[in-house]
């Protein structure tokens, strides 16, 4: 039977999973007898009979028990479980344990052409049950939240906390005991995970500092880039000391123009001290004020004013950096004053090229909207200095961004050809440039689908500059693709500790949780991120993604809509919204958005992967796979994550999907070092 004849049905259901405790230890004759008794008890329960009569129930045998899939009333499986528990008390020879979960399933025909179901709803119900002992009726959070709104049920639930099950997925469990039914004891398999905050910060260890962008108090806005360069020079010189943890530029510069208290900024960046300053110019005269603030109480540890003539931008930066670092040695390390800053490598001697580079960095932070302006600045810098290695690496970053899943503006082939060429040129000029190795690794991972080459590039970038956040960040992605999830999570946490104010550092903790199908953890991380930075659209999109995967359709759809608005029409967000409409049953809205995406694709690149996702959610699986074949031919970045795609959980185990995943993995793991 083809997909066109019988499109798949996506439903959010409530599943009661049960099994007989100690079943495998019984003789075959005893096993048959116990199953016969259980089947009779279930058939005689009122909730089972009523749901069956209304065709709102799917019953599935599971060997030593069964799964009952209730299609409508989320309270029915709970009532049914209590009915069965009451009847089992009359059979001392049998003990049951039960798990109830609400989540997504997809119906399909088994080898006998009979109705079967697949998906997270059924799998998670079994994992909830597996946590219990004899007599336990355990619920997932989704079910408990429904009962907590009903007067007669809330007092019957005990929150057992978050617990780890198969594949290191965390589930929030509740124990149900009502009218003497259930097992009030704590399940022996359940050990609470240590409480952690998804965006929590470790305690401050040793001297640490953030250098904020210097405020430009003059009328000449061009000096803003000079003040940025001065702050960067100080960050580089302090990093060279090797004894002070320095907040990365991306985090420190995220507070540009904000009026937040310095103590609040320091706590956000998890540092003990903050260096702030201002620059005022008049003609060629410069007045620069700097002060060092202790975060704990906001007191000034040291301040100084520098009056200089701007005859050479590099000489002024070097002089002030030497003076400031010399002072900080004493205040932060207790070392004697030494007016000599550690040498920071300079990639150009052309002040104008350097200024253009700083402007480009300023625009690139605002990706993807500022990427084109950044490209123009870096290209102008290279016209001034064709051997400016750092500008080439930054151009590679720009084209990687344009081809990334976040932007998707350039076709993968175009993004990779340009990005790789610029990255390789940067490394020809400077083989020890961490930025160049990282940009090259990004292309190997997302466009060339070469995991070995990508890992070599990322690890080399980290070796050359252990504090370079982007290399750690993208290496965590590679580890997730390789399903080395513990290593991936460790790298993600390392990146967050290194760069706590970068919203993408927080975002990608929830990304890794989604990749592991730990939707409860992904939701907590995303909610914490939304509360911390409500104006960052991607936090809302990822929160919505996790909620949809957990079966909370309306709340998930609302978050994705909000994120789409905040992100200002980024194509991939429009795809998220169309997909959410489709699985929520808003077919007309999803079709309208799909048509709009196809119109957009006439003028700029839209990944067939995204188009395929919407077709699949609308029930047209044949067209979905046709689009994914196009995405495979084009080497769409999305496809490297296909095996763990939360929106396609229900396809895992199906031959056509598994075959596509296998082809991708063979390509990603090929040995490209051989001739």
User: Rg, please?
Assistant: 29 Å
Structural class: alpha/beta
Tally the beta strands.
14
Major sheet attributes: 8 strands, mixed
Task: Show unreliable segments.
Answer: 1-7, 192-200
Q: Choose one word for the global shape.
A: elongated
Q: Alpha-carbon distance between the termini? A: 45 Å
- Helix coverage percent: 40-55%
Number of helices: 26
Strand portion: 5-15%
Mean pLDDT: 83
Structure, described:
The structure is a single chain. The chain is α/β, with parallel strands linked by helices. 51% of the residues lie in helices and 14% in strands. Strands 1, 2, 3, 4, 5, 6, 7 and 8 form an eight-stranded mixed sheet that branches. Strands 9, 10, 11, 12, 13 and 14 form a six-stranded mixed sheet that branches. A hairpin with a 5-residue loop joins strand 7 (157-164) and strand 8. The protein is elongated and about 95 Å long. Residues 1-7 and 192-200 have low confidence and may be disordered.
Task: Describe the secondary-structure layout.
Layout lengths: L9 E11 L7 H17 L1 H8 L3 E5 L3 E6 L5 H13 L7 E14 L5 E4 L1 H11 L6 E4 H7 L9 E8 L5 E7 L31 E4 L3 E2 L6 H19 L3 E2 L2 H4 L9 H8 L3 E10 L2 E10 L5 E10 L3 H21 L17 H14 L6 H14 L4 H15 L8 H18 L4 H13 L4 H14 L4 H13 L3 H14 L4 H13 L3 H14 L4 H13 L3 H14 L4 H13 L3 H14 L7 H10 L3 H14 L20 H14 L7
Parallel strand pairs: 4-6, 9-11, 9-12, 10-12
Antiparallel strand pairs: 1-3, 1-4, 2-3, 4-5, 6-8, 7-8, 12-13, 13-14
Helix pairs in contact: 2-3, 6-9, 6-10, 10-11, 10-12, 11-12, 12-13, 12-14, 13-14, 14-15, 14-16, 15-16, 16-17, 17-18, 18-19, 18-20, 19-20, 20-21, 21-22, 22-23, 22-24, 24-25
């Amino acid at each position: 039977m083809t997909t066109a004849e019988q499109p798949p049905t996506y439903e959010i259901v409530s599943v009661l999973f049960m099994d007989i405790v100690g079943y495998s230890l019984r003789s075959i004759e005893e096993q048959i007898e116990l199953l016969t008794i259980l089947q009779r008890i279930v058939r005689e329960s009122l909730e089972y009979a009523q749901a069956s009569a209304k065709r709102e129930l799917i019953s599935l045998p599971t060997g030593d028990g069964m799964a009952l899939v209730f299609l409508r009333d989320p309270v029915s499986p709970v009532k049914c479980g209590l009915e069965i528990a009451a009847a089992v008390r009359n059979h001392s020879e049998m003990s049951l344990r039960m798990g109830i979960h609400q989540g997504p399933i997809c119906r399909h025909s088994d080898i006998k052409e009979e109705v079967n179901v697949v998906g997270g709803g059924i799998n998670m119900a079994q994992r909830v049950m597996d946590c219990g002992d004899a007599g336990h009726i355990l619920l997932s959070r989704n079910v408990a939240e429904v009962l907590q709104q009903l007067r007669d049920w809330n007092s019957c639930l005990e929150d057992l906390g978050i617990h780890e099950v198969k594949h290191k997925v965390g589930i929030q469990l509740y124990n149900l005991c009502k009218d003497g039914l259930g097992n009030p004891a704590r399940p022996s398999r359940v050990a609470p995970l240590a409480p952690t905050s998804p965006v929590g910060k470790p305690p401050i260890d040793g001297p640490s500092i953030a250098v904020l962008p210097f405020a430009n108090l003059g009328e000449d806005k061009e000096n803003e880039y000079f003040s940025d360069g001065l702050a960067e020079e100080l960050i580089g010189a302090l990093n060279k000391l090797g004894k002070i943890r320095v907040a990365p530029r991306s985090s420190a510069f995220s507070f540009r123009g904000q009026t937040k208290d310095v103590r609040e900024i320091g706590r956000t960046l998890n540092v003990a001290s903050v260096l702030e300053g201002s620059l005022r110019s008049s003609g060629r005269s410069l007045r620069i004020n700097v002060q060092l603030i202790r975060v704990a109480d906001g007191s000034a540890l040291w301040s100084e004013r520098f009056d200089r003539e701007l005859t050479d931008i590099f000489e002024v930066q070097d002089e002030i950096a030497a003076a400031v670092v010399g002072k900080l040695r004493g205040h932060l390390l207790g070392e004697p004053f030494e007016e000599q800053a550690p040498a920071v490598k300079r990639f150009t001697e052309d002040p104008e090229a350097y200024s253009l580079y700083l402007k480009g960095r300023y625009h690139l932070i605002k990706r993807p909207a500022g990427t084109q302006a950044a490209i123009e600045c870096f290209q102008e810098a290279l016209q001034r200095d064709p051997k400016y290695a750092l500008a080439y690496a930054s151009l590679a970053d720009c084209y990687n961004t344009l081809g990334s899943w976040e932007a998707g503006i350039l076709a993968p082939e175009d993004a990779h050809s340009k990005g790789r060429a610029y990255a390789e040129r940067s490394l020809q000029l400077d083989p020890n440039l961490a930025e160049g190795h990282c940009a090259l690794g990004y292309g190997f991972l997302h466009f060339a689908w070469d995991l070995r080459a990508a890992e070599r590039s990322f690890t080399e970038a980290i070796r050359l500059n252990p504090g370079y956040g982007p290399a750690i960040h993208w290496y965590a992605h590679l580890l997730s693709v390789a399903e080395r999830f513990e290593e991936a999570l460790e790298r993600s946490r390392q990146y967050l500790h290194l760069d706590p104010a970068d919203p993408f550092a927080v975002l990608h903790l929830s990304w890794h949780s989604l990749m592991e199908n730990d939707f409860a953890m992904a939701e907590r991380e995303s909610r914490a991120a939304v509360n911390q930075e409500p104006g960052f659209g991607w936090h809302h999109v990822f929160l919505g993604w996790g909620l949809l995967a957990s079966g909370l359709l309306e709340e998930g759809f609302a978050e994705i809509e909000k994120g789409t608005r905040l992100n200002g029409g980024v194509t991939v967000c429009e795809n998220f919204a169309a997909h959410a409409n489709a699985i929520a049953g808003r077919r007309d809205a999803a079709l309208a958005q799909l048509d709009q995406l196809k119109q957009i694709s006439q003028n700029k690149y839209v990944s067939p992967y995204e188009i395929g996702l919407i077709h699949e959610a609308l029930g047209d699986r044949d067209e979905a796979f046709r689009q994914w074949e196009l995405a495979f031919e084009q080497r769409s970045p999305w496809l490297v994550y296909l095996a763990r795609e939360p929106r396609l959980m229900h396809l895992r185990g199906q031959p056509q999907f598994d075959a596509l995943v296998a082809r991708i993995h063979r390509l990603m793991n090929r040995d490209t070092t051989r001739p």
